[in-house]
């Protein structure tokens, strides 16, 4: 009897869950990975160019922090960056809105 009840419960979850997931997926766009968030870390590397500063922050060194302001950060400095994740040329980057 318990196995039968478990099977009925599992089937009910599948039947009800799949349509809910399908409907919820319509409200989320995978083409637009922008998410407002905050990043805290230590500057590992920073390079400033004419209109952009690119910072590599530990522990997430594979996603660069990009700022379109002229920032003065030094290696080893602890920073908090508020911004969003964006896709650029097929790669993720963290675009900084505010740095402290």
Mean pLDDT over all positions: 83
Strand-and-helix sequence, N→C? Answer: HEEEEE
Number of domains: 2
* Level-1 CATH class name of the largest domain: Mainly Beta
| Head-to-tail CA distance between termini | 61 Å
What order do the strands of the largest sheet run in, or round the barrel if closed? 1-2-3-5-4
Structure, described:
A five-stranded mixed β-barrel has the order 1-2-3-5-4. It folds into two domains: 30 residues; 64 residues, Beta Barrel (OB fold (Dihydrolipoamide Acetyltransferase, E2P)). The chain is 24% helix and 47% strand. It is built from one helix and five strands; from the N terminus they run αβββββ. The longest helix is centred in the N-terminal third of the chain and has 24 residues. With 100 residues, the chain is α+β, with helices and mostly antiparallel strands.
Mind sketching the topology for me?
Layout: H1 2-25, E1 36-48, E2 53-58, E3 60-67, E4 78-88, E5 91-99
Parallel strand pairs: 3-5
Antiparallel strand pairs: 1-2, 1-4, 2-3, 4-5
Write out key terms for the chains shown.
alpha+beta; 5-stranded mixed beta barrel; 100 residues; OB fold (Dihydrolipoamide Acetyltransferase, E2P); elongated
